[in-house]
UniProtKB/TrEMBL annotation:
The lineage of its organism: Bacteria, Bacillati, Actinomycetota, Actinomycetes, Kitasatosporales. This is Beta-xylosidase. InterPro entries: TAT_signal. Residues 1-26 form the signal peptide. It comes from Streptomyces hundungensis. Keywords: Signal.
C-alpha cells in the first residue's frame, strides 16, 4: 500500500477576513436630504487570512448636522456604509462587538480636504459567509469659506479585535466617489477655528500612551486632550497648558475601551468652536493593566497530514463458477489525521489493478464501492464520503474535506466493496491491489 502526503503550513487565527462591517447605527438627520451613492471598492483582507483582495460595490450615505453653516461653524459629519463591498469571506462566525471602523470623507468645492471619521466598537454577530450589517462613523470639520461644499465617501478601514488585532483597509477604486451631500456655507463673519491635532500611533492596547500634537490653539491656554466615543468624551483625559505659539505635545494614557477617537479643547468641557478633532484612535481588546504583570507565552505547533489502516488484506466473499455475481466485503478502516492547522482540506482517492488468477483476470472496472466517512467530535472539518460507483484503474474519491479558514481533525473512512465476477470465470484465487492516496 503506497501513500503520498502533502504538507501546507499556514496559520489562520479566527475569522479575520472581512471586507467591511459593524453593527448598524442611526445617522443624525440632515437639513437636506442626503443621497445614497454606489462606488467601486477594493478591500484587502489581512494576509493571514490567505484570501485574495475583494473588489465590490459599496453603498454609502453622508449626512451632516447642519447643511447651512456659517463660516467658522463646526459641522458634524456621519459616514454610513449601508452595504459594504463584500460579505464575511470565511466559514467561521464572528462574534458581536469586535469591529471598529474608521474612514475619511472627501470635501470639494468651496472647501477642499478630508474629514477623519470613526465609529464605535459595536456590531451584531456575523455568520460564516454571511452579509455584513451597516455601520456608521462620525467626525467634524470647520467651515472656512462661503460657497457650496460637496461631501463624498472616502476610504475606510475595519479594525477587528478577535483572537488577533487585524485591519482590513478598503479604498475607493476610482476616487473621488460620487457626491452624497452638499453643504451651503454662508459668510456670517464668524471666526474660523483653525485648531488641529494629530495622534501617533492611532491604536494601542488598553493603558498604552499615544503622542498627540496640536497647533493654532490659544497661546498659554489650558488645553484638555480627551478620548472620544463618537458622541461624547470618555474618561481618558489629560489637561496642560499650550506653549507660547499655541502648540503642544501631550502623552495621554488611553484605557477606556469605548474610546474610538481623540479630541482636544480649551475650557472646562468639549466645545467644537474651541477644540479640534476627533482624530481616530482604536483601543485593542483586553482590560487595562492594574499592577505588576507577567507576559505568558505559549504556542501551538502545526503537525502533519497522515493516514493509517486497520489491515492490508481484504477477503471478499467467494462466488460459484457458472453463476458469478457480487463478491463482497468491507474495506479495512482507514484513519486520517489532519493536524496541520491550516486552511487546506484533503482528498483520499483510490485506484485498483485488474484481479489476476491462474487462468486469466477480472477487469479492475468491475470493482465498485460505497464509501462512508465520519469525523471525531470537535474536528473543525466536516468529512464528505465519495460517491458510490466503480473504482477501476482510473480511480475514484473515497472521502474528502473542503478548504476553510481553519481545517483539521481526525476522521474514520470505510467502504462496502463489491466485485462483479463474470459467471464463467475460471475457478481459482484472484487478487488485485487497491492503492489509496492522501493529498
Amino acid at each position: 500500500m503506497s501513500e503520498r502526503r502533502r504538507r501546507r503550513l499556514a496559520a489562520v487565527l479566527g475569522a479575520v477576513a472581512l471586507a467591511a462591517g459593524t453593527g448598524a447605527l442611526a445617522a443624525p438627520a440632515s437639513a437636506l436630504a442626503a443621497t445614497p451613492v454606489d462606488f467601486a471598492t477594493h478591500c484587502i483582507p489581512p494576509a493571514i487570512a490567505g484570501i485574495p483582495p475583494i473588489d465590490g460595490t459599496t453603498n454609502a450615505t453622508i449626512t451632516v448636522d447642519n447643511a447651512a453653516p456659517k463660516v467658522g461653524d463646526k459641522v458634524t459629519v456621519t459616514y454610513t456604509v449601508n452595504r459594504p463591498a463584500a460579505s464575511n469571506p470565511v466559514d467561521l462566525a464572528l462574534p458581536a462587538d469586535i469591529m471598529t471602523p474608521t474612514g475619511k470623507v472627501t470635501l470639494a468645492g468651496a472647501q477642499t480636504g478630508s474629514v477623519d471619521v470613526a465609529g464605535p466598537k459595536k456590531n451584531d454577530p456575523v455568520p460564516g459567509k454571511g452579509a455584513f450589517p451597516a455601520f456608521s462613523m462620525s467626525g467634524s470639520f470647520t467651515a472656512t469659506k462661503a460657497g457650496a461644499v460637496t461631501l463624498s465617501p472616502g476610504d475606510y478601514n475595519i479594525h477587528t479585535s478577535y483572537i488577533m488585532e487585524l485591519d482590513t483597509p478598503c479604498t475607493v477604486t476610482n476616487p473621488p466617489a460620487p457626491v452624497s451631500e452638499t453643504v451651503g456655507v454662508t459668510d456670517g463673519g464668524g471666526h474660523v477655528n483653525e485648531r488641529a491635532i494629530a495622534a501617533d500611533p492611532a491604536s494601542g492596547n488598553a493603558g498604552d500612551r499615544t503622542t498627540v500634537t496640536g497647533s493654532k490653539f490659544t497661546p498659554n491656554a489650558d488645553v484638555t486632550v480627551a478620548g472620544w466615543n463618537g458622541t461624547a468624551t470618555t474618561a481618558d483625559r489629560i489637561t496642560f497648558k499650550s506653549d507660547a505659539t499655541g502648540g503642544f505635545t501631550a502623552r495621554p494614557k488611553i484605557t477606556d475601551p469605548a474610546t474610538t477617537g481623540i479630541v482636544a479643547y480649551e475650557g472646562a468641557a468639549w466645545d467644537p468652536a474651541h477644540g479640534a478633532g476627533p482624530v481616530a484612535y482604536t483601543v485593542n481588546s483586553g482590560p487595562p493593566p492594574t499592577g505588576p504583570s507577567q507576559k505568558l507565552n505559549t504556542s501551538v505547533n502545526a503537525g502533519t497530514l497522515a493516514m493509517s489502516q486497520a489491515g492490508d488484506s481484504v477477503d471478499l466473499q467467494a462466488v460459484d463458477f457458472g453463476k458469478g455475481g457480487a463478491s463482497t466485503g468491507d474495506l479495512k478502516t482507514v484513519t486520517v489525521q489532519d493536524f496541520r492547522g491550516g486552511p487546506a482540506g484533503w482528498s483520499l482517492t483510490g485506484k485498483v489493478t485488474d484481479f489476476t488468477g491462474p487462468a486469466g483476470s477480472i477487469d479492475a472496472g468491475r470493482l465498485s464501492w460505497t464509501p462512508a466517512c465520519s469525523a471525531k467530535a470537535g474536528s473543525p472539518s466536516v468529512c464528505a464520503a465519495g460517491s458510490a460507483g466503480s473504482v477501476g484503474a482510473a480511480g475514484a474519491t473515497l472521502a474528502s474535506t473542503p478548504n476553510a479558514a481553519l481545517t483539521g481533525g481526525e476522521f474514520t473512512v470505510d467502504a462496502k466493496l463489491s466485485l462483479d465476477v463474470p459467471a464463467f470465470t475460471a475457478p481459482g484465487a484472484y487478487s488485485g491491489v487497491l492503492t489509496l492516496t492522501l493529498t
